[in-house]
Amino acid sequence: MMARLRSAAYMAWLVLSVIPYAIAVLLLAPFVRGRTLYRFCVGWVRFALWGAEVVCGIRYRVQGLENLPDGPLILLPKHQSAWETLALPVLMPRPLSYVFKRELLFVPFFGWALGRLDMVHIDRKRGTEAFARVAEQGAELLRKGYWIIMFPEGTRTARGRKGSYKLGGTRLAEMTDTPVLPIAITSARCWPRQAFIKRPGVIDVSIGRPIAPAGLSAAELMQQVEDWIEAEMHRLDADAYRR
């Protein structure tokens, strides 16, 4: 019962805080763009993460920050819940540009504000056209100093499970000669994929070493990413893989 009440309180926390923040973004957007607007939005993300800790008891610990390079990068994280979409902009030293499904743009307030940022939204039903958009906009954003973030499994996976790793991120890496960064995240331990109830605990974030695309095909590069992430997930959340 307590977990249910906490989860309901946290949902109210998110909804009530995102509305004024999103309105502020919409009002600022005609005058402020790029990194300045991004940093303003990260303020709400920090507030949301703080709320997850205060209300739901969800904490996190990070290892591997020393692996972050001082140059272009494509992040390829494990995707188990919405938690990592909130946490990664806070953890990373550079602004992130997410590649996401365009349906999110229609989410009231949150999606409206998201559409004002330098992100790449795609229609997944248009495979070739969607990747052409990723390639064009992703390359431009990398040149501007953004780090691109794509979830290689495409959608959230349940705790202890592995999705199908898609090649979009490594194809972009191959085209732009940009290293990829595998990241393992155990968010489903506290924030299950489709469950309303969130449970207290610690989420582990493990950042691997960048992998350069030189001499590798997109498939070979993604295989290295997949192998590292899944091995690290087994290490970080061994109980989930014993079931």
Account of the 3D structure:
- It is built from seven helices and seven strands, in the order H-H-E-E-H-E-H-E-H-E-H-E-E-H.
- The mean pLDDT is 92.
- The chain has a single domain (2-241), classed as Glycerol-3-phosphate (1)-acyltransferase (3-Layer(aba) Sandwich).
- The protein is 45% helix and 14% strand.
- By secondary structure, the protein is of the alpha/beta class.
Could you outline the blueprint of secondary structure elements for this entry?
Blueprint: H1 2-28, H2 34-56, E1 58-63, E2 74-77, H3 83-91, E3 96-101, H4 110-114, E4 120-122, H5 127-143, E5 147-149, H6 168-176, E6 180-185, E7 201-207, H7 218-236
Parallel strand pairs: 1-7, 2-5, 2-6, 3-4, 3-5
Antiparallel strand pairs: 6-7
Label the CATH architecture: 3-Layer(aba) Sandwich
| Total count of domains | 1
Q: DSSP strand (E) fraction? A: 5-15%
- For the largest sheet, list the strands in their spatial order: 1-7-6-2-5-3-4
N-to-C SSE series? HHEEHEHEHEHEEH
Kindly identify the CATH topology: Glycerol-3-phosphate (1)-acyltransferase
Morphology call: globular
Q: At the first level of CATH, what is the class?
A: Alpha Beta
